Amino acid sequence: MQQPFKTKDILHLSGIPFEVVRVLPNKLQIENVNTGELRESSVPELLKKYSEGTLSVGRRVDTGNGEPLRSSRANADTSMERLGEKARAATLRKVSWIVKIRDMGGFERPRLLPEAISRVAQELGEEHPPHISTIHRWKRQFELAQRDVRGLFARLDRRGGRGQSRLDDEVEASLTEAMDTIVLGQKRSSASEVRNAVLVDLERKNAYRTVGNQLKPPSLRTVQKRMAQLYAFDVCAARHGAKEANRRYGDSIAARQVTRILQVVEVDHTPVDLWVVDEEGNVLGKPNLTALLCRYSRCVIGFFLSLVSHDVETVFGALRHALMPKDYVRERYPEIRGEWACYGWMEKVLADNGSEFAGSALANAMFNLGIVLEFCSAYQPNDKPFIERFFRTFNYGFIHHLKGTSLAKVSDRKGQELQDEACIQLSELERLIHIWIIDVYHRRPHRGLDGRSPAVVWAESAEMYPPRLKMDADTVDIELCDVETRSLGRSGIEINNHRYNSERLCSLRRMLPAKSVVTVKFRRLDLGHIFVLDPFTQEYFRVDNVKEGYANVSIEENKLLRQIRKAADPDASIQVASGEEVIRTVVGKLAASKAAKDRTKAAKLRKEDSHKVRKPQEPSRPKRPPKPEIDAAAFNKAPEILEAI
User: Fold this and answer.
1) Is residue 79 scored above 80 in pLDDT?
2) What's the pTM value of the predicted model, to 2 decimals?
3) Whose CA is closest to 403, among 392, 389, 416?
C-alpha cells in the first residue's frame, strides 16, 4: 500500500494533534504533541478516519513565536476570493516563478539558478526579476507548506499592522472605558460625546506626564470607526434590554410546521387604515379587524369588523364566523364569483398575550368548544408570523387603494385632509372585504405556498382532512358569551341593569334552595336575552329581557339612555321618555365632531360592527301579559327611547 503520510506531518485525530515520528510499512508511529505519548496506527485505519472527517492533516511550522500547531483547515480563510487585486496578482507571480524554475531544474543545481531566473524573466517579460534570495524564500515557504500553493499567498492585507490598534495602551483603555460607559450605558450617544470623555480623561493623565511623553487623543474618525465595530447585539442589549436584543438579533428559525388545514389557526387584531361614514356621510372613525388565518393554507376562515376597540366580543364574533359555513355569501353578495369554503373546527388557536385573549372568558369558551388555545412567547415574532403578514397585505394591497384611506405612515399623509374623501360605510366595507378575500386573496398565487393559491391548497387538504362540524349554531352562540354568576330571585335575574325572567326560570327557582346562585351567559352586544345554566340537566336555556325592544341593543347604547334619564328634568318626563330627538342630537354631535374619540363613541352607540351587518332582523314576538311581581310601569317608555338609536 502506498504511504500517503510523511515524517513530521501533523495529524489531528478528533482535534488532538499527533506528529508522525516514524513511517513503517503499512503503519505509522505517531506522538501526541501535548503529552508525548507514542502510538502505532495502521494506514487503512487512518484513511478510514480521514474519510469519516475525524482526521485532518496539517504541518509543523517553526514560527518561533509559540503559536499552536494548526491543521490545514485553519488556512481555509486564505482563499483567492478574500485577497485584493494586488495580492492576487502577487500570488500568481510567485507561483509562476516557483513552478517555472522548478521545471527547469534550477533548484536541483544551485549554480544554474541565476541563469534560470534570467530565462524566466525573459519568458514572463519582467525587466526587474526577483532577487535570488527572494526566490529561495519563496521556495522555503512552498516546501514548509508541503508544496501547497496556499503557502505562497501574498498577504498584503496584513502589512503595516492592519487590523491592529496604533493607539497607546492607556489611550486604548480610556477609549474602551468611555464607549462602555456612554455607548453601552445610555439610550443615545454620539462619537463626539465619547471623544470628549476621552479628552477629559487624557488631560487628567497628561498632568502627571512630561512634555515629551504626552498622550495623544484619538481623532473623531477613529472614535467613529471603533463605535461602528461594536457588536450590534451588545449595543441593543445595553440600551433596550436582553429581550429586545434577542428579538432583533436572535435566531430566525422557521415557524412550526403544519401538515393539514385547521391544524393551527392564528388570530389577531389590526386597525383598518380607512375612515368609514354613516348614512348621513359623517365620519365615524377607523374600524378594527379581527381575523383568523389557517397556517397551512393561508386562508382567512373568519373575520369581524368593529368600530369599538377590540375586546373579547370581537374575538367571539370572529370565532363564530370561522366555525360556521359561509352559506350566506351567494345570497347576500351575488357579485362574488368564487366560494368561501373555509370553515370548521380548528385543532389549535394561536393568540398573543392581549387581555382579550388571556381572559378567562375566551379560555373557557375554547375548552367548551374542544379547541386548544395557545399563547405565543413574548418577543417571538416567528410564533405567529402569517397573520401579521396577511394584515400588511390587507392594508397595503387593498385598503390603501380605496377612497378615504388614512394610509399607514404619517409621512404619506400629505395634501388635502384624508377624511374629506371618506365615503364608505361599514356595511359597504364588509362587502368589499368579502369580495377581496374570496375573489382576490384566496385566488392569487402565494409565494409561501410555492406559487399555489390559498384556495387550491385548502381544497387539496380538505379532500384528505375535510373540515368537521360539531354541536349546532345555538350551542356555538351560547359558548361564545361572557360568563358570570348571579343570584336567582323572585323577579328573575338582574344583570347589566336589566332583569330577565321566564316561566322555566320561575320553575327552576322553585326547585332550588333559597338565595341560590346560577351561572349566566350573556352578550354585551345584545341585551334582549341571556342564557341560564340548568343545574339539573346541565343545559343552557334562553331567558328573555322583561322589557320589550332590547333585542340587538348593546350595553353602550343602554348606558347612554340611562345617563340621559338621570340628567333629565323630572317635570319633562314625557319628552325624555320619547328620547328620539335627544338621542339623534347627541349622536349627531358626536359623529360630526372633529375629535376621533367622539366619533368612536358615536360608533359605539350605533353599534357599527359586523354583527349589525350580518345578523338578520329578529322577528317580533307576541307581547306577554306582565307578571304580577314585575312593575311594568317602570319600563313603559323604554321601547320608544330605544327605537331612536
Assistant:
1) no
2) 0.62
3) 416
